[in-house]
Design a protein that fits this description.
The protein is mostly helical and about 525 residues long. It is about 75% helix and about 0% strand. Helix 11 runs antiparallel to helix 14.
């Protein structure tokens, strides 16, 4: 009981502004609306309950990913998700009648959806939509026979379209009323181009996923023929969205631990509900809402709640989770090991390399702000938004390092450097806020001030030098010093002085970053004794 109260207090502190809870409310509104629609379709079209389960799974995932969608993304979703839902429905039939062919198509579909991330943010979001119905195929319990014929394929596409439209209506209303914050625009989340050669991160992740799913299908089909989906689903969840080896390690540990707890809890209460129990359906939706809310706090909470939902779903179908307890736990553990091994052995993505790339991207955003035309306050604020988004991306990339740093285990200096770089860039927020305030107050005065322009050029060059050091690229030739540099007048205005102070603070943080990533200078040989 004490453990539960501690976890509850931590959850409340984690969402003090109730932002995640409000987002959960919109997501569950999407889920419940789609659930009601799917029940109506099931009744009118004579479908079976598997169509309802797949609709809820798709709507639940859609409600989470649509938070970042803009108008163009939603138009794309109206075309992509119905086609993906129709394909997922046919794939489920194919897996039942031709398992080997169906498994291969599943692997290629998921890997292809990850590979297209290399084409940008919109392609990444479209690929995510393609995967949602494929994952729903794994959730339907074994032994549930879908309705015969291809008519249900059209209904699946129509239900997916309803989920997009209904979710868009709820999200639009939430943004218009201020219930939710408007997501960042496409020009904010656009990633800067990189000059690195070799395979892209999306290609590596696609190959890792293909390897993990292939092994999971082989192991699951041969060891647990009736419950192979548990192995495949766990391997997918461990590998999906993993940004680096450290991310996979932490996610795999949380997935295994959370799933074990969720399975044990669901098995303990499974006897309270009978097959086709309405009370079990209510509990499933309540636990799903808790999972959506606490996902941002820890992946372990999400894994525990989702596993409990799946166990309750099996109980609703008349398959007692208690009888399958050991099988489920073993399948989850094996799937986690497979996903972890694929991410660590197949073209691995090092956590330190991801942190370096995200740090360089954040510095690029800082350089864009300093190089912007300060007469245009709107352009300056847009550059500030890009910098903030890239620091947030660095926060996600270093999350596994923060988890590992809390454990009593030795760490490499590169991991400490990544965490210090993240903290340093976060500390740039204060000086940048002061600088934006000064620019907003007197844009023309600051843009035309010669001393401030010279100082801004120096800080911009320093930021570029740090970026080149992080990328291990040679520094450009040092320009000749100017014979006479402008100086700040003794009677400079408070606004100008505030901007100069902010630039000085930013340069201090850049010095810290340079000290982290600059290679050590070779020691000079000792002078020979005369």
């Amino acid at each position: 009981m004490r453990t539960f109260s501690v976890a509850l207090r931590r959850a409340l502190r984690f969402d003090t502004a109730w932002l995640h809870l409000r987002t959960t409310a919109v997501t569950m509104g999407t889920v419940l609306g789609t659930y009601a629609w799917s029940l109506l379709v099931e009744h009118l079209a004579g479908l079976r309950v598997d169509s309802v389960v797949q609709a809820v799974v798709v709507a639940s995932a859609l409600g989470r990913v649509q938070r970042a969608f803009d108008r163009t993304d939603r138009l794309v979703a109206c075309a992509v998700l119905p086609c993906a839902a129709a394909g997922g429905t046919e794939l489920g039939t194919l897996i039942q009648h031709h398992p080997n062919v169906g498994d291969a198509v599943f692997v290629l579909g998921v890997a292809g959806a990850i590979w297209i991330r290399r084409f940008g943010t919109r392609a990444t979001r479209a690929g995510t939509l393609v995967v949602l119905p494929l994952v729903a195929v794994l959730v339907v319990p074994a032994g549930v026979v879908p309705a015969a014929g291809h008519e249900r394929t059209g209904w699946a596409a129509l239900t997916a379209l309803f989920a997009v439209v209904w979710g868009t209506l709820l999200t639009w209303t939430s943004h218009r009323t201020g219930f939710l914050h408007t997501p960042p625009a496409a020009w904010v989340v656009k990633t800067p181009p990189t000059a690195r050669g070799g395979l892209s991160a999306s290609t590596r992740m696609a190959l890792q996923m293909a390897a993990a799913l292939t092994v999971a299908f082989v192991v699951g089909r041969n060891v647990w023929p009736d419950h192979w989906a548990w192995v495949v689903l766990t391997a997918f969840l461990v590998c999906s969205g993993a940004r680096s080896r450290g991310d996979v390690l932490v996610k795999g540990a949380w997935r295994t631990a959370g799933a074990a707890v969720g399975t044990l809890v669901a098995s303990a209460v499974s006897g309270s509900f009978g097959p086709r129990s309405d009370a079990a359906v209510v509990v499933i939706f309540v636990v799903l809402a808790v999972a959506t809310w606490l996902r941002e706090l820890s992946y372990a909470y999400w894994a525990a709640c989702v596993t409990a939902v799946l166990s309750l779903l099996y109980d609703w179908f008349g398959q007692s989770p208690g009888d399958l307890l050991h099988t489920r736990l073993a399948g989850i553990a094996v799937g986690a090991v497979i996903g972890l091994a694929a991410s660590w052995l197949v073209l691995p993505i090092r956590t330190g390399a991801v942190a370096r790339a995200r740090t360089a991207a954040a510095l690029a955003g800082l350089g864009e702000l300093l190089e912007a035309d300060w007469h245009d306050v709107r352009a300056v604020r847009r550059a500030r938004a890009r910098f903030t988004h890239r620091v947030d991306q660095l926060t996600l990339a270093t999350a596994p390092l923060r988890v590992l740093a809390s454990l009593p285990m030795p760490r490499r200096h590169t991991e400490d450097h990544a965490l210090l770089a993240w903290a340093t860039l976060r500390d740039c927020t204060g000086p940048l806020d002061a600088l934006i305030t000064a620019i907003t107050a007197a844009p023309a005065q600051l843009a035309d001030d010669p001393a401030l322009t010279h100082r801004r050029t120096e800080v911009t060059a320093h930021a570029l030098a740090v970026r080149r050091t992080i990328g291990r690229r040679p520094q450009p030739p040092t320009p000749e010093p100017l014979s006479a540099q402008p100086h700040t007048a003794a009677t400079s205005s408070p606004t100008t002085q505030a901007a100069l102070d902010a630039l000085t603070a930013l340069e201090s943080h850049l010095d810290t970053l340079m000290g982290l990533y600059a290679p050590p200078r070779p020691q000079e040989p000792a002078t020979a004794a005369r």
